User: What shape does this take?
Amino acid sequence: MKELMNLETNPPPGIRIRSEDCDAFNEWLVDLKGAENTLYEGEEFQLLFKFNGRYPFDSPEVTFTGSNIPCHPHIYTNGHICLSILTDDWSPALTVESVCLSIVSMLSSCKEKKSPPDNSLYVMKAGKNPKKTRWWYHDDNV
Amino acid sequence: MEGDKTLATSASTKAVEEESLAALNMDEAILSQRRGIEEQIASEQQYLVSSTRELSELERDYQHHGEFSARIQELKLIYGCLRRTRADGNCFYRAFGFSVFEALRKNKAAYQAFRKSITEAKEYLVIIGYPTFTLEDFYENFIEELDKVCDGEGCPISQLEELFNDKGMSNYLVVFLRLITSSQLQKEQDFFINFIDGYSTVKEFCSQEIEPMDKESDHVQMNALTSATGVCMRVFCMERGQYSTVTFPSDGKPIIHLLYRPGHFDILYPSADATADSPTL
Assistant: This one.
């Protein structure tokens, strides 16, 4: 996959693709660093990208994984992320890099670390695949 | 008193939880219904772009709507036949792409001009910071197919039909036409912002209504895509009251013709030269 090689050779700051753990066609692991001067400075996170056969027409399934899931009003403790470009507003012109940058920016604009208000219920009931949830996107400021 | 209050709180929490649970189950139901509709459309319309059809076929669509049969008679005065496109939300871009490729393959000057405008539209997206990686990929693919179609004497119509009915290839072309539309809207945002409802910026409108697949089109998209590409297009709008035709730009000589019915676009061929292989240019 051309996109994988591109991200390996020119990664944006704070983003590193773990190519040793990537299955080029189905699943990628990406390391993400919290940006400087934000609540997440110094923290490291891991994102799991899963691609289906319809990519890039269909969005990848993106979740936080590993031991450190960021505490954020749009990120559930099971790793699911409420971000419109991951479902309804996905465009084939977007890339893994642009998804990572959107997530870093979402973290960076956060003013208070807290879980989503309906976290416990959602985590209990939601399936494995976040794309099976119809998300309501209501807050563009966080 | 304390006790009563606790009871009341937990009861209302329970109601909220039940409501959210019901909402989660409903999500699944709505998503599966949406998939069901897509599958049904795909099984009824095997094509993405059909072969040429008689206009009288439209009469069957409107058997129980008398007022439309008058519209169809009016349509027959101007047009000879049509091609249907699948109603998957991409019909405008697919109809536009097919008919432009068909018109350009026998018209070298228009082909070169079109090639130049889409390259400029792509360059504008690079300037405003679109990921070049994917953009160049869609652009190169589009140019490659366009060149193949317009090479020499122009490819046979069957090759064009094959190209636009191969789902992967066809959608790749649709993505690029969506990007061109987005480019034009953003370049002329001071103008287009006046015609956009429910969005505070043109950029936001583009990322939610233009760039994602399967999102339907209307007047704004028609205006943007034709002005970005310099293609003159006439649209026959068939609605309940009476028909109207709109030409983009209004003083141009149309090289492609589309039929618009609320929410859907098909391709039309003028009757003066009604065979699909040589539409009037």
Q: What stands out?
A: The two ends of chain B are 84 Å apart (CA to CA).
